[in-house]
Amino acid sequence: MSQRTLVLLKPDAVRRGLIGEIIGRIERKAGWQITALELRELDQETLELHYGEHKGKPFYEPLVAFMSSGPVVALVVEGERVIEGVRALAGPTDPIAAAPGSIRGDYGTIVRENLIHASDSEESAIRELKIFFPGLS
Ligand code: IDP
């Protein structure tokens, strides 16, 4: 089942020089392809669309401030079961609870600054890809 997912390397990953390390892990999975890639700063409107489901939660405002604190790398990744697969590579939201070997488990300690976003379902992937890569067919 070939799928498409949205991945964001968050500002902490870019600042810490982990772009290559994280993209390398994604590239090394057999058969997955990076089909779009962009370094960009996210404005408030984009973040509100992307994280709208969290609006009103205590972590929302600091999350938006963090996500606009520096550039992110946005990627489209395509391949076999890539939505579930990138979520597995990333690990759970809390990096301390994430297993060593996962991206968050290997490099993170702070829940907010957990290095990577990956769409969590086909529905989210379609919605998020439209926000970040509206030109995709
Ligand atoms: P996910 O990124 O693992 O799918 P979500 O629940 O969708 O997790 O949360 C979005 C992002 O918001 C997380 O990746 C993390 O950066 C931040 N976040 C979530 N929960 C908390 C929290 O309790 N404290 C601080 N930041 C949080």
TrEMBL record:
<feature type="domain" description="Nucleoside diphosphate kinase-like">
    <location>
        <begin position="2"/>
        <end position="137"/>
    </location>
</feature>
<feature type="binding site">
    <location>
        <position position="87"/>
    </location>
    <ligand>
        <name>ATP</name>
    </ligand>
</feature>
<comment type="function">
    <text>Major role in the synthesis of nucleoside triphosphates other than ATP. The ATP gamma phosphate is transferred to the NDP beta phosphate via a ping-pong mechanism, using a phosphorylated active-site intermediate.</text>
</comment>
<protein>
    <recommendedName>
        <fullName>Nucleoside diphosphate kinase</fullName>
        <ecNumber>2.7.4.6</ecNumber>
    </recommendedName>
</protein>
<keyword id="KW-0546">Nucleotide metabolism</keyword>
<dbReference type="Pfam" id="PF00334">
    <property type="entry name" value="NDK"/>
</dbReference>
<dbReference type="GO" id="GO:0004550">
    <property type="term" value="F:nucleoside diphosphate kinase activity"/>
</dbReference>
<keyword id="KW-0808">Transferase</keyword>
<keyword id="KW-0963">Cytoplasm</keyword>
<feature type="binding site">
    <location>
        <position position="59"/>
    </location>
    <ligand>
        <name>ATP</name>
    </ligand>
</feature>
<keyword id="KW-0460">Magnesium</keyword>
<feature type="active site" description="Pros-phosphohistidine intermediate">
    <location>
        <position position="117"/>
    </location>
</feature>
<keyword id="KW-0479">Metal-binding</keyword>
<dbReference type="InterPro" id="IPR036850">
    <property type="entry name" value="NDK-like_dom_sf"/>
</dbReference>
<feature type="binding site">
    <location>
        <position position="93"/>
    </location>
    <ligand>
        <name>ATP</name>
    </ligand>
</feature>
<dbReference type="InterPro" id="IPR001564">
    <property type="entry name" value="Nucleoside_diP_kinase"/>
</dbReference>
<comment type="similarity">
    <text>Belongs to the NDK family.</text>
</comment>
<comment type="subunit">
    <text>Homotetramer.</text>
</comment>
<keyword id="KW-0597">Phosphoprotein</keyword>
<keyword id="KW-0547">Nucleotide-binding</keyword>
<dbReference type="InterPro" id="IPR023005">
    <property type="entry name" value="Nucleoside_diP_kinase_AS"/>
</dbReference>
<feature type="binding site">
    <location>
        <position position="10"/>
    </location>
    <ligand>
        <name>ATP</name>
    </ligand>
</feature>
<keyword id="KW-0418">Kinase</keyword>
<keyword id="KW-0067">ATP-binding</keyword>
<feature type="binding site">
    <location>
        <position position="114"/>
    </location>
    <ligand>
        <name>ATP</name>
    </ligand>
</feature>
<dbReference type="InterPro" id="IPR034907">
    <property type="entry name" value="NDK-like_dom"/>
</dbReference>
<feature type="binding site">
    <location>
        <position position="104"/>
    </location>
    <ligand>
        <name>ATP</name>
    </ligand>
</feature>
